[in-house]
TrEMBL record:
GO terms for molecular function: protein heterodimerization activity; RNA polymerase II general transcription initiation factor activity. Residues 11-22, 48-66 have a biased composition (Basic and acidic residues). One of its GO terms (cellular component) is transcription factor TFIID complex. This is TAFII28-like protein domain-containing protein. Residues 1-66 are annotated as: Disordered. It comes from Bos mutus. The lineage of its organism: Eukaryota, Metazoa, Chordata, Craniata, Vertebrata. Belongs to the TAF11 family. Residues 71-155 form the TAFII28-like protein domain. It comes from the Eukaryota. GO terms for biological process: RNA polymerase II preinitiation complex assembly.
Length: 172
């Protein structure tokens, strides 16, 4: 007679004095009550790991906040003003959404719109910073002029920090 594989596993588990845990069986979820003595060692490690991650995330968050405070304290008045304007600025989400949908030809989720809006903001910030460097290097004073922005874009392309605008043929 062929034996049941589950019966073999139960027998081996009983002989070792261990606990049989099937992967199919639902494990207690976060927030559910469960007797820790009935949990498998893997489940116990998983719980300890997530608690450790939360602690590390808090530490990293505190370190980042301290770094930001130090950075802001070291800024000149002009830099601080520019940073505050940058923080408050945003592209209109409806405009970004319409632009993406026009290019992609399909509806996009709110998360995609938020991500693209953030990437556009960072991109513009990099171009403006480079343009300010160009303006300073040429011995001119702000406000920025189109020639400064064009040179900044040229330099960023040269560094490989600007995406290519040449049309590429997509095969799929």
């Amino acid at each position: 007679l062929p034996r049941d594989p589950a019966q073999n596993a139960r027998k081996a588990s009983d002989e070792e004095g261990g606990e049989l845990v099937h992967q199919d069986c639902p494990q207690p979820r976060a927030g559910e009550e469960a007797d820790s003595s009935s949990r498998s060692p893997v489940a116990k490690r998983r719980k300890v790991d997530t608690e450790g991650k939360r602690g590390r995330q808090r530490e990293v968050g505190e370190e980042e906040a301290q770094k930001m405070r130090t950075l802001v304290a070291a800024m000149s008045k002009e830099q601080l003003n520019r940073y505050e304007v940058f923080r408050r600025s945003a592209f209109p989400k409806s405009t970004i959404k319409h632009l993406i949908q026009a290019v992609a030809g399909t509806p996009v989720s709110q998360n995609v719109v938020i991500a693209m809006s953030g990437m556009a903001k960072v991109f513009v910030g990099e171009v403006v910073e480079e343009a300010l460097d160009v303006c300073e290097k040429w011995g001119e004073k702000p406000p920025l002029q189109p020639k400064h922005l064009r040179e900044a874009v040229r330099r960023l392309r040269e560094k490989g920090q600007m995406p290519s605008t040449k049309h590429k043929i997509l095969f799929f």
